[in-house]
Write a structure and sequence with these properties.
Elements: E1 4-16, H1 21-27, E2 36-38, E3 44-57, E4 61-65, H2 72-79, E5 87-93, E6 96-99, H3 112-122, H4 127-141, H5 156-167, E7 174-178, H6 186-202, E8 205-209, H7 213-219, E9 222-227, E10 230-236, H8 237-248
Parallel strand pairs: 4-8, 4-9, 6-7, 7-8
Antiparallel strand pairs: 1-3, 1-5, 2-3, 9-10
Helix pairs in contact: 3-4, 3-5, 4-5
Length: 250
């Protein structure tokens, strides 16, 4: 099966509840007037994405670029089906795995080994897949005896290493990544970077929100430049990144 992502005229409005209308408008003035409005019931809505058209096929690796608040993370959440578009249509063929919050689903009262199963099931792994990959995950984390202790006894770095190892053990057709993951000391980060590259290579399509220009040029054949929730440019990575750099240097 060939993976595919297709977005046609996708827009997303996010409602903001329990905030005084005028107060919120003042605080969000930097979004621009076209980004904020009242719906028919008087609820404030923010136009998070506007008229996104995008097609990705097997073999594509897409980099998402743009200033903070441009809509990169929001688009990833639409692709992950966390947010449903308020207009337009989205079609996804293939198993999609989002690495947007790698600690999602971990339980403080359960051991590291038990969390491998919990997080694995949440990511769509079967019981057999989890059983087959548990030893490899444990070895990668370098947690040794801690793997059979409750997660509440872990340091922040140990938690991230466990979450990272589980998340990158999944076999995905489509991989959705939000920024680079920080996972410990320099030695472990080098190990993690290699694992992430291997993870990339197993997926048919990768969509990555990233600020590192070198990483985009090295790993992405296509780039989407977002500005205020709209597509500013989409196409060959070299062309789009060059345009983006020119605009930010003005």
């Amino acid at each position: 099966m060939q993976a595919e992502i297709k977005l046609e005229s996708v827009s997303l409005q996010l409602p903001i509840y329990d905030v005084a209308s005028q107060s919120l408008k003042k605080r969000l003035v930097s979004f621009g007037k076209e980004k904020i409005s009242d719906d028919q019931s008087g609820v404030i809505v923010v136009q998070a994405l506007s008229d996104i058209n995008l097609t990705l096929k097997s073999g594509d690796s897409l980099g998402l670029i743009g200033r903070n608040g441009a809509g990169k993370s929001t688009l990833l959440r639409v692709l992950a089906e966390i947010y449903a578009p308020t207009a337009g249509s989205i079609s996804i063929v293939g198993k999609s795995v989002p690495l947007l919050d790698i600690s999602l689903g971990l339980d403080d009262q359960s051991t590291g080994r038990q969390n491998i199963r919990l997080r694995g099931l949440l990511l769509g792994m079967t019981s057999q897949e989890i059983e087959e990959k548990t030893l490899e995950i444990v070895d990668f984390t370098e947690l040794d005896g801690y793997i059979d202790l409750p997660l509440r006894t872990y340091s922040a770095g140990m938690r991230v290493r466990l979450a990272f190892a589980i998340s990158t053990a999944v076999d995905a057709d489509i991989l959705l990544l939000d920024e680079v993951l920080g996972v410990g000391d320099a030695a472990f980060q080098a190990k993690a970077k290699k694992r992430l590259q291997e993870f990339h290579s197993r997926a048919q399509i990768v969509v990555h929100a990233i600020h590192d220009e070198k990483a985009i040029r090295d790993s992405c054949n296509k780039t989407l430049w977002l500005e205020n929730g709209s597509v500013k440019a989409f196409g060959d990575t070299s062309d789009v990144v060059t345009m983006y750099n020119s605009s930010t240097n003005i």
